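Run folding on both entries below.
>entry_1
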Amino acid sequence: MKNVILNTQAEVDAFVGADITGSLVIEGSDIDDLSPLLTLNSVSGNLLIWNNSYLTNFHGLDKLTSVGGDLKILSNTLLTDLDGLSKISSVNGDLCIEYNNSLTNLDGLSNLTSVGGELRIMNNPSLTNLNGLCNISSVNGDLSIYTNPTLTNFNGLSNLTFVGGNLEIGYNAPLTNLDELSNKLITAI
């Protein structure tokens, strides 16, 4: 199955398939339940989940183990956590988590070990911690963490030993262990 675009809950409900050889886009103002996607095992291209006003979690994507391209989670107004993505161990492209107003944690990504491109976490005003990233050891591109006003530490990045690009951090709450993160990454290079 090539690229799949799901714009309505009815399209999500009608989905049948296990593997998408292209990209999957989930974008719709009435989408609030991804459980009909439980048959989905793989996405070879990008997985883009954005502009969903009623989606609170990602239950239904529970069988996905990897994303062949980018994983972008953008502008999901009521999304509170990333539950449903717990089997994903690698993202071959960029991982971008941006403009999710209600997102409080990244716990659904606890099995993720590597990001092939950039890791960007920006403009998530309710994000309090990065604990869900606890198993990431490498980011091959830039690591950018900007404008997350309730984020106070980087404890969730305790296993990160390699960043292939720039380390860009700014406009977050007063961070308590920025020096620790910087020193750890400098010694790992």
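>entry_2
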Amino acid sequence: MNKYLWIDTETTGLSHKTHGIISLAGFYETHTGKISDGFNFHCQPHPKDKIDQRALDINGITMSEISEFPESSDVIAAVEKIFSSLVDKYDKKDKMILAGYNTKFDMRFLAEWFYKHDNNYFYSYFHKEPLDVLAMVRKYFKVQQTKPPNNKLTTVADFFGIEFDAHDALADIIATYKVYNKIAPFFGITPIGDI
């Protein structure tokens, strides 16, 4: 039975090696479709991370706001506690599927975030292959007669009549889950949960 961790990150740039996480939010979905209350964290980037002003402009976050966020080390400790409450990282059969929109982007940033904090256990919580709603969207529209002008989450959500405040990690992952529920039947998947 699959368990899913739906997650979105906001970052200080596009390179997981040189940039870092400043916001992450998500929720847990059991194989029965039960949805957890979720989490929503902001944090300062890791001290080694660079900050691209263009990324902050997109996220709508200022340097002043970042300076008031909790330290990255405190937030990752809270995130690891959540992950550990959901799966046993020492049990090879007890893993979650990381789910989101362009999930490999988030997965790379999260794994690197763990490594930057001297924690090598990120992949102990997850199956290696994520569930990527963006990949599903691309397949879905490939066979449709009509499609949006691009595959950005904001554009796709608008196509399906889903309104949300973009570039907020929690709003983004909720919108992603709603898009998933819209297209899941096309793939023979019956959506179980709702948010």
